Amino acid sequence: AHGLMIVIRLLIVALLIAVAALGLAWLFTGNRKYLGYMGRVLRFAIVFGFVAALLFVVERVVLR
After folding, report:
1. Handedness of CA 34, 36, 38, 40 (dihedral sign)
2. φ/ψ of residue 32, rounded to 5
3. pTM, whole model, 2 decimals?
4. Which of 16, 38, 54, 64 has the fewest CB atoms in 10 Å of its CB?
């Protein structure tokens, strides 16, 4: 379970870096496709966060 938290933290950091990089790419180029990629990354982040939270709750309830 402890290893899972490390993986989740690394993924969160990677997602934040990806969003920041895409945001900068869009600012510098003005190319709207980067906004589309950013939306996709953010949607993935929300879904991933929801799944991670669910797993965390299930783990707490089951492994008490």
Report:
1. negative
2. -70, -15
3. 0.69
4. 64
Helical H segments across the chain, by residue range: 2-29, 33-62
Position 54, amino acid: L
Q: What digits encode the pLDDT tens for the residues 22-58?
A: 999 999 999 999 999 999 999 988 998 898 888 888 8
Q: Do residues 59 and 1 lie in contact, with contact meaning Cβ atoms separated by under 8 Å?
A: yes
Is residue 55 classed as helix, strand or coil in its secondary structure?
Answer: helix
Do residues 15 and 45 lie in contact, with contact meaning Cβ atoms separated by under 8 Å? yes
Tokens of 11: 């993924």
